[in-house]
Specification:
Blueprint: E1 3-5, E2 11-13, E3 22-25, H1 28-32, H2 40-45, E4 48-52, E5 59-62, E6 71-73
Antiparallel strand pairs: 1-2, 3-4, 4-5, 5-6
The chain binds zinc ion.
The site of zinc ion (ZN) has 7 residues, from loops.
């Protein structure tokens, strides 16, 4: 099962479908390309996946997919 070790030492699991730790985001521009009824798979295809640590709320954004290193955002 895929997992990531957070900087706070929590282990973030994201192999479940759906995963409570994985979120999806997409740009307003990508969203604007859709209208009317849409296929959820098409929306998923233009989405960027990120993980939210359930302990410290850091965000790990996979801008280039899960094969690349995520960019990390920490709450202030
Ligand atoms: Zn954490």
């Amino acid at each position: 099962m895929p997992k990531l070790l957070c900087k706070c030492s929590a282990v973030i699991h994201y192999g479940e479908i759906p995963s409570p730790n994985e979120w999806l985001l997409f740009s307003d521009s990508n969203f604007d390309n859709f209208s009317g009824m849409v296929d959820a798979e098409e929306v998923y295809a233009v989405s960027t996946s990120f993980l939210k640590c359930p302990k410290c709320s850091r965000l790990y954004v996979f801008w280039e997919g899960h094969q690349s290193e995520p960019q990390v955002f920490a709450p202030e």
